[in-house]
Structures are given as C-alpha cells and as structure tokens.
User: What shape does this take?
Amino acid sequence: MTLTEIFALSLGAILIENYIFVKFLGICSFLGVSKKMDTAFGMGMAVIFVMTVASAVTYVVNRFILVPLNIGYMQTVAFILVIASLVQFVEMLLMKMMPALYQALGIFLPLITTNCAILGAALLNITNELNFIGSVIYGLSAGIGFTLAIVLFASVRQRLILSDCPKAFEGFPIALVTAALLAMSFMGFQGLKIW
Amino acid sequence: MKQILFPVIALGGLGAIFALLLAFASKFFAVERDERLPLIEEVLPGANCGGCGFAGCSACANAIIEGNAPVNACPVGGNECAKKIASIMGVEASDEAKKVAHVMCSGGNANAKKKFAYDGIKDCIAASKVQGGPLECSYGCLGLGTCKSVCPYDAIEIVDGVAKVMSDKCKACGKCVAACPKGIINIVSYDQDVFVSCSNHNKGAELRSMCNIGCIGCSLCVKNCEHDAIHIDNFLARIDYDKCTNCGKCATVCPRKLISNQSEIVSVQPE
Assistant: This one.
C-alpha cells in the first residue's frame, strides 16, 4: 500500500464517508452519549480502540479461519463474537484505569457491542477487499471519524441546552435537527473524492 | 457432515480462545471493590434524593464505607436503615428519633395581609425577588409551592396559601429547608406536637398590621410554661424542644391562637 492510498483511505473514512453523518451507522450512541463533551470524547476513544482492534482481529479471523474453511456466511456471528469480547476487555480496562469515565459512559459501554458502526467497519473491510494494514487503518480512521462527529455534536448540544428554543423542540427534536444540519455540512466533503 | 462440523469447531474454538483471554484479563485488571458496598446500596432507599449531602445512594454507600459518613447518614431510611448498615459495617447504631420538616408560618390567605397582587412566575424564589414577596410580612410563607415542587416524597401541600408538611410522608431529607427563600422550614422531632408556627420578629403593633395570627411577643406563654421551655427571642416566642413536654398549656393561653397543639388536632379530626 502506498502512502497516497493510505491517506486517501483514511481521509475517506474520516470525512467523505463519515460513519455517522454519511453512512448513518452508530446513531444510537451518537445521540445517547453526546450530552457532555468529556463523556462524548471518552466514548469516541473507546470506539476508536474497539474499532481498530476489531478490524485487525476480524481480518485475521476472516482470512485464516472463515475463508479457508469456506464458511464466509458465518462472518456476522464470528465478528460479533470478536467485538463482544473486545468490549468486555475495554470495560475491564476502564473500570480499572478510569472509574469516572466508566460511570459516565454507563450502559453505552456494553452497547458498543451492538454499535453497528463497529460491525459495519469490520464487514466493509471485507467487501472493500482491504489487506491487513488497510483494514487497521480503515478501522482507526472510521473510529476517528466517529469521534470527530460525536465531539462536534456534543459541543453543539452543550450550547443548545442553554439556548432559548421553542418548547416543542426542546431536547431531542432540536438535537436531531442539529444532527441533520451537521450531516448536510459533511455532504460538502464529497468534493474531496479525487482519488 | 463437514458443513456442520467446521463452523461449529471454528466458532467454538474462537469462543474458547476469547473466553480464556478474558478470564486472564479479568484476573489482571481485577478492581478491588468492597464487598459491603452492594449490601449497603441495597439497604439504602435508592431514591437518590441527595438528602444525605452526597450525589446519590451509591455515593453515600461509598462514603459510609470510607468512613466519611456515619452509618445513619441517610435521613430517609431512618433508624431501620441505620441499624442494617451498622450490622453490615459491624458497629453499633445509636437510636435516633424520627425527624420531620415543619413550616414556621401560619399566615396564608386568611391571615397574612398582601402588600400587592403578585402575578409573576408561580415560584417562591421568583416572587421573593420582587420587593421581598407580595406579603406585608417579610418572614411569611408565600405559598407558591417551591418547597412542594422540590419534595421528592410529595409530603408538602399548599393549604389555603401556606405550606403544610404531612409528617407521615416527610423523611426530613432537608430539600425544602434549602429551597425555601424565606428560610422558615425547620427540621424538628416527629414527636414534637406543640409549635409556635411564626417566624416574624417584628414588634407586636407592627405585626398586627401585617398578620391576623402571627406572634406579637406578649410572653403569656412564657409565664404559663411550667417547664421553662418557651422564651421570647426578639419579639417572637420560641420553644426549646429539648425541654418541652408537649403539655399544650401554652396553646391554651395564646391570645392569638397561634400556638398549635397537633396532638389535639389529630384527636379531634376523627369525630
């Protein structure tokens, strides 16, 4: 893989094909944990970690177990197994290292297991026929894209709470409108598709 | 046969490997949690009212274990809760009388005179910002229910323009005490029946122009008390709850019919 390809791949995953704003994957945690900037950032970090490692492990699992045995149809089950174990691991890690963040993330940490963005990244690695390095970089970039989106959104929502808005729009409705506007602005990055 | 066997072996093997790795990780990253913590959390009411001064019940349980809070830190759970926690912690709990909040005002629509008609936000804190509130009496209960809205136990009712605490429901968490902008809610013993429910320190003549029931500081109650339990403090009668025997003598002599004897009220009601 040349440097240009890697650059194009990561730029694509972060901006052009942003998981949240363009692919609409992982919306659950995106809306759930974006009330505060630091928890949003913590969630983003956890997702980056799980996505990167999951991409690497799922690549190995797919390449050396599923493909040789010709049981590609087991992809989803095997990948969920990998992701669930990784999430368990991250949970233990956080409980030990950062109990405050562990409490703040609450139920959304185990829910990374069912975060479709992570399974999406693992499956897209296969469909895009990326090699090992490509998979890891794609997973990492997708995680960074997720973090970028959730942190941007959290910073907007923090101000949104204080601002005066019509009663009917308070809370989730205005948050969803904001998410839509952010998604539209991310559509602008489509112009970067030059490679 | 292969079609079934391969997936089973492959996935089973994967599962076993991950299980082993996680088992090692859980040993390696084990967090030492005090085993008493979940027990105490279970005993605590779980309302997360914050009455103890901590962020919630689990924070309170943490503080009890770390020794930052006494075993009877939870005002809501009362004696029963304190005893259970004490047995978990392995210490003796001292018996503490149940406490309730009491509103030190008897004014309301019938008695307290209005300075102006207030038509703003229905909230005592907002109302008290406007000239100290709409009442002539600057100490009186505004009756807009800020205490009622903060009460996690629905123990406060606004009756005829003055807040009343239903002592059976009250857990003495102290939220209303902190919320009242006039600072006229006190925490008292549940067994106390006799109250001078007034907070006004103005002289008698001034008070008469403000309120039909407030304490004028005539000191008749002081003279008639056989237990030296009532004193005039700056034109306002105050009961020393430690000395008071709830005999109710003061209630009978009070010319303003201000001093209430709740035990009597309770016994009269059923008839």
Notes: The mean pLDDT of chain B is 84.
